[in-house]
Write a structure and sequence with these properties.
Layout (H helix, E strand, L loop, with lengths): L1 H18 L10 E7 L2 E8 L2 E6 L7 E9 L2 E6 L1 H6 L9 E9 L2 E8 L6 E7 L4
Antiparallel strand pairs: 1-2, 1-8, 2-3, 3-4, 4-5, 5-6, 6-7, 7-8
Length: about 130
């Protein structure tokens, strides 16, 4: 019985470690869509810049500097234009996004910030369509 329990433990441990290995590289750049509180948002991320377009706007509502910490974790720091539009955002505001799951062209994430206790979880889909 102990051998069976040990075998099951090893199988589950291996499955869990393999399931946690994500290949997030295809999400580093591109065009993405998501919803926030029922509002569609288009995200355009290229190089170290991310623009977020709320609704059907053609001009980014917010622009961020993107810094990848590892293959599946990145930070977003707002630029001066975004800070001017949203002056209540602290100067040193930093959002950290951790990709937790990938299903096809969609990634699920958890985001935290250095200015709020709120933890957001949602999903973003890569579309590469304008």
């Amino acid at each position: 019985m102990k051998k069976v329990a040990l075998l099951l433990f090893i199988v589950f441990a291996l499955a869990k470690s393999q399931a946690q290995t994500l290949d997030c590289s295809k999400f580093k750049e591109g065009i993405f869509t998501m919803e926030y509180e029922g509002t569609p948002i288009t995200i355009k991320r290229f190089g170290n810049t991310q623009g977020e377009y709320v609704g059907k706007t053609k001009v980014p509502t917010m622009t961020f500097e993107v810094k990848w910490l590892d293959d599946c974790t990145y930070t977003l720091a707002h630029d001066a234009k975004t800070h001017k539009k949203f002056p209540k955002i602290p100067d040193n505001a930093m959002i950290t996004v951790k990709i937790t799951k990938i299903v096809g062209e969609t990634y699920y994430y958890t985001s935290t910030s250095n200015f709020s206790e709120q933890v957001l979880t949602s999903k973003i889909t890569k579309t590469d369509l304008y």
